[in-house]
Amino acid sequence: MSSPSKNIESVLVESRVFPPDARASTGARIAGMAAYEALCKEAEQDPDGFWTRQARDNMVWTKPFTRTLDESNAPFYKWFDDGELNASANCLDKHIGTPVEHKTAIIFEADDGAVTEITYKDLLARVAQFANALKAQGIQKGDRVIVYMPMTIEGVIAMQACARIGATHSVVFGGFSAKALQERIIDAGAVAVITSNFQMRGGKELPLKAIVDDGIALGGCESIKTVFVHERTLSDWKRVEGRDITFAEALEGQGIDCPPEPVGAEHPLFILYTSGSTGKPKGVQHSTGGYLLWAKLTMDWTFDLRPEDVFWCTADIGWITGHTYVAYGPLAAGATQVVFEGIPTFPNAGRFWQMIEKHKVSIFYTAPTAIRSLIKAAESDEKVHPKNWDLSSLRILGSVGEPINPEAWMWYHRNIGHEKCPIVDTFWQTETGGHVITPLPGATPLVPGSCTLPLPGIAAAIVDETGKDLPNGAGGMLVIKRPWPSMIRTIWNDPERFKKSYFPEEMGGTIYLAGDGAVRSADRGYFRITGRIDDVLNVSGHRLGTMEIESALVAKTDLVAEAAVVGRPDDVSGEAVCAFVVLKRGRPTDAEARQIANELRAWVAKEIGPIAKPKDIRFGDNLPKTRSGKIMRRLLRSIAKGEAITQDTSTLENPAILEQLGQAY
Ligand code: PRX
User: Fold this and answer.
1) Residue 149 Rama label (left phi>0; alpha psi -120 to 50; beta)
2) Neighbour-count burial for 144-167, b at 16+ CB within 10 Å, e otherwise
3) Is 324 in the pocket of ligand 1 (CB under 6 A)?
4) Cβ of 188 less than 6 Å from ligand 1
5) What is the CB neighbour count within 10 angstroms for residue 207?
6) Residue 430 near ligand 1, beta carbon < 6 Å
7) How far apart are CA 331 and CA 341, in angstroms?
8) 426 in ligand 1 pocket by Cβ < 6 Å?
9) Dihedral sign computed on CA atoms, order 419, 424, 427, 429
């Protein structure tokens, strides 16, 4: 339980309100709350008319749609179903012949600071040429292609080229392991992998292609016919003859014209795997039409994008944020954007601020974890404090991926935004495709730590387990009661899991359950997200399933008998992974325990990826269980937090384990 003083503090914090600065509201697309409310009203009263207008105004259709929303097979909703379009054409070709054609599309800054710029026209040529290279290797509309690449122009080109020929991409974050890659290749039935020989991060050269080889060698990946290798560095890599082809080889002789392949609006643009409450990641399937509409619209609504803006979203293309706000949204909106290969702390923790100054970034969008770690760095080293750089180009700041604590919000507001830039705390998920609850920079009065109000057309509500609305001030489950264009379409290969996970029967089967807890403020009805209500953790803005980590631990069959994983709050990463482990050989202590804990961390890194490594590992003779044999997770969470135990532990067979589990390694 939090202390009373903490409660008072958070009440005080929540009462601070920051109305939009004149700089942000003057000339804004949605200027003032009345304009926002008018849009909401329009979307509510005539959803069909509203979405039809948005889809016609914001997208280029090769075949116009005549049906806006088809609810006949709910919750498998279809949007703009009989229309045809191409996502890449809507990001690139549509700008040709407009002032955007010769505008810089991407300012790429490499890990070592080298900068490359590419215009829309040149980006189109490179995407088209790579699309031709994909086709030359036999890749066709409907095929699935894995993209396992670093943050580079080529990473964006790979995704756009897939979209151009109608192939469905599935990007796997470069920090995921060979095993994770193999599982995704198999589930998606992918025919090709697009990768780089190495990636550069923080001055280090890390292998990617070798991990692809290891993943494929694990077996079951016979569907893979081609591995495209972008030679990011000069270092040697091992070629598998007859399967591997370099970018240079694949592009040789390919023309720079490639007509975009029209696809139906519901054609899967991509599958992106994310963690759920079971051990197996879910392949979240997104559409082409509805998804892209949302990517474009939210660039305009949430970021109020203007032609002269320099937009920078720091997310990796391996996550949904890097899909919607790097690979698609900024291009669909004709923005100039920064793409950054490296990490925020290399060569020092002033890197982000230095890059904002250098590229005159006006919209900066990052995760609370990054902000918290840079606050720590700035507080301990004056040299990397943001005051050393000119951040006056900034107009709008954004936050994404996890709740932002009011202290971090205030620091961001003062030290980065100089009290002039609205902070859009955007709540959304892999499944929602784009922002769903967020302030609008020219309209919404801001409250630190609150994602404020839903976008027009998003029927967000807070309900109890039966789907009944709860009043403001009461915490409950976050739901979205009406379909919206960019919502998840299904889980790849698992429509039953889609229905069960997101549209529970107890709530009527057609209401989207987000999986987060939330509460609305009594005064303004503002939403505050209180965290996941399922077994999903949010570590540094990365989504991890506790069951996935448990499965990885027990897969170390020579050592581990049983494992349970819970999260605990962490100052920098938001949440930290804590594992409770029972070994087959008996409980280790001291040096042996430390050594085994490190062995288990290395194992989890190999099974899933370094981001899933448990921060704390605790060993017991057994795990605390109820009489019916269920692990007492609430008790484990208390132990992980170091809290006093208030739960009833009288049923524990072995009370001594409470003391054993008190020690973390
Ligand atoms: O718990 C919520 C948290 O991140 C989860 C979604 O994770 P993912 O699918 O990886 O997408 C992250 C990027 C959109 C949500 O269920 N989350 C995301 N944004 C916020 C947030 N929690 C609080 N405030 C946010 N702004």
Assistant:
1) beta
2) bbbbbbbbbbbbbbbbbbbbbbbb
3) no
4) no
5) 16
6) yes
7) 18
8) yes
9) negative
Distance CA 149, CA 461 (A): 38
User: Model pTM?
Assistant: 0.95
Instruction: Determine if ligand 1 sits within 6 Å of the CB of residue 432.
Output: no
Q: State the 10-residue block means of pLDDT for the chain, 665 residues long.
A: 36 73 89 97 97 98 98 97 98 98 98 98 98 98 98 98 98 96 98 98 97 98 98 98 98 98 98 90 97 98 98 98 98 98 97 98 97 95 97 97 93 97 98 98 96 98 94 96 98 97 93 96 94 91 93 95 95 95 94 97 96 96 86 92 84 83 93
427 beta partners? 437
Residue 557, CB half-sphere, CA atoms under 13 Å: how many? 1
Query: What integer pLDDT is reported at residue 14 of this predicted model?
Result: 60
| Per-residue pLDDT, 8 | 39
Test site for ligand 1: of 172, 285, 402, most ligand atoms within 8 A of the Cβ: 402
User: Quick check: CB of 402 below 6 Å from ligand 1?
Assistant: yes
Measured from the Cα of 437, ligand 1's closest atom is: 26
Closest CA to 529 of 401, 626, 655, 617: 401
| Amino acid letter, residue 42 | E
- As a whole number of angstroms, the distance between CA 548 and CA 528 comes to 27
Q: How high is the pLDDT of residue 22?
A: 84
| Residue that the structure tokens 């050594």 belong to | 595
Q: Is 543 in the pocket of ligand 1 (CB under 6 A)?
A: yes
Q: What pLDDT, on a 0 to 100 scale, did the predictor assign at position 627?
A: 78
ipTM over 0.85: yes
Is the separation of the CB atoms in 353 and 365 below 8 Å?
no
Distance 25 CA to ligand 1 centre (A): 27
* Residue closest by Cα to atom 14 of ligand 1: 429
Whole-angstrom distance, CA of residue 570 vs CA of residue 160? 37
**How far is 157 from 230, CA to CA, in rounded Å?**
11
Phi, psi of 587 (to 5 degrees): -80, 125
User: Residues 6 or more apart from 206 whose CB is under 8 A from it?
Assistant: 174, 198, 199, 200
What span, in angstroms and rounded, lies between the C-alpha atoms of 417 and 28? Answer: 18
Q: Which two tokens stand for residue 230?
A: 């972008």
- What's the full length of the chain, in residues? 665
pLDDT at 420 (0 to 100): 95
